């Protein structure tokens, strides 16, 4: 990922006190000097991406606010001299106020607002969004005349529009985007409980759990249940505050183990009505 914002922060050495590098004024389309700098940074980032592709990279992301036709044409003109580069524009459109509030809250933790009062940062970012809207031009017929590929994601994938998608990689990118999910989630990794082979120092095998191992399995079940309850409280509080996209508790929690006895016994205390429990062979210990 080649992020123009990171390049901007590095170029300005993180100095956001004078309001020229990070504040909303820098993103005003009427600020011609700032626009020149933004375009230069976008091209520098693109050059870095092209160089990376030529070194063997397959898919590079030019992460920038390429939201005007002028900016997109500028990038396409540069890429016209790179016959092996295929371009796929991705536009994210958000009209859901809850999703917007959630995204704004996340943005306030970015390096642009480090050390800045939350209320001040929120006000500045909303003004930045206003500036974005002034020059925003959605992907459409004029872009299609250039023969480009593009994908529009509306409200985090509730609706997806794909145009002129060609080739395996572009198709796989669309598939990934259609299955993209921004909902927060937890992934817990754990060893199995103590087995009878562990007691005697034996590696491998398919021994059952010891009494201590079974106690671990019971404790693990209670721990995960407690964490789910705490996560549910947090989600509900965030939803009531308008910063979460859904108050709903996750419908199912997946529990994956190998096919070995010690791992299956470790999750025996998990209620199958509450958990989607699967025993999967490819998780088996190698050469066990």
TrEMBL record:
Which Pfam families does this one have? 6PF2K
Q: Does the keyword Nucleotidyltransferase apply?
A: no
* GO BP field: fructose 2,6-bisphosphate metabolic process; fructose metabolic process
Report the coiled-coil segments.
none
Q: Which organism is it from?
A: Lunasporangiospora selenospora
| Keyword ATP-binding tagged | yes
Q: Which GO terms describe its molecular function?
A: 6-phosphofructo-2-kinase activity; ATP binding
- What residue stretches are annotated with the 6-phosphofructo-2-kinase domain? 1-184
* PANTHER family per record: 6-PHOSPHOFRUCTO-2-KINASE 1, 6-PHOSPHOFRUCTO-2-KINASE/FRUCTOSE-2,6-BISPHOSPHATASE
According to UniProt, the name of this protein is 6-phosphofructo-2-kinase domain-containing protein
Q: Which GO terms describe its cellular component?
A: cytosol
Q: This protein's superkingdom?
A: Eukaryota
Q: Where is this region: Disordered?
A: 1-28
List, alphabetically, the CDD domains matched: HP_PGM_like
Q: Which UniProt keywords apply?
A: ATP-binding, Nucleotide-binding
Q: Which residue windows does the record flag with biased composition (Basic residues)?
A: 1-11
């Amino acid at each position: 990922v080649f992020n123009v914002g990171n390049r901007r922060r590095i170029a300005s050495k993180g100095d956001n006190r004078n309001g020229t590098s990070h504040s909303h004024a820098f993103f005003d389309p009427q600020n011609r000097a700032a626009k020149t700098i933004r375009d230069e940074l976008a091209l520098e980032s693109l050059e870095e991406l092209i160089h990376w592709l030529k070194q063997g990279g397959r898919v590079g992301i030019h992460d920038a606010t390429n939201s005007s036709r002028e900016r997109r044409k500028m990038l396409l003109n540069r890429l016209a001299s790179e016959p092996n580069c295929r371009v796929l524009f991705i536009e994210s459109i958000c009209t859901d106020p809850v999703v917007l509030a959630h995204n704004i809250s996340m943005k306030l933790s970015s390096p642009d607002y480090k050390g800045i009062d939350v209320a001040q940062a929120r006000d500045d970012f909303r003004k930045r969004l206003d500036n974005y809207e002034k020059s925003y031009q959605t992907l459409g017929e004029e872009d299609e005349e250039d023969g480009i590929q593009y994908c529009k994601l509306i409200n985090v994938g509730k609706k997806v529009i794909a145009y002129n998608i060609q080739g395996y990689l572009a198709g796989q990118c669309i598939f990934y985007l259609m299955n993209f999910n921004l909902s927060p989630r937890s992934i817990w990794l754990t060893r199995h409980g103590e087995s009878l082979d562990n007691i005697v120092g034996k590696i491998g095998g398919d021994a059952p759990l010891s009494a201590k191992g079974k106690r671990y399995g019971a404790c693990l079940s209670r721990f995960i249940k407690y964490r789910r309850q705490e996560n549910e409280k947090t989600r509900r509080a965030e939803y009531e505050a308008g910063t979460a996209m859904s108050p709903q508790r996750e419908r199912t929690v997946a529990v994956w183990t190998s096919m070995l006895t010690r791992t299956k016994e470790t999750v025996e205390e998990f209620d199958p009505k509450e958990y989607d429990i699967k025993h999967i062979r490819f998780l088996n210990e190698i050469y066990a």
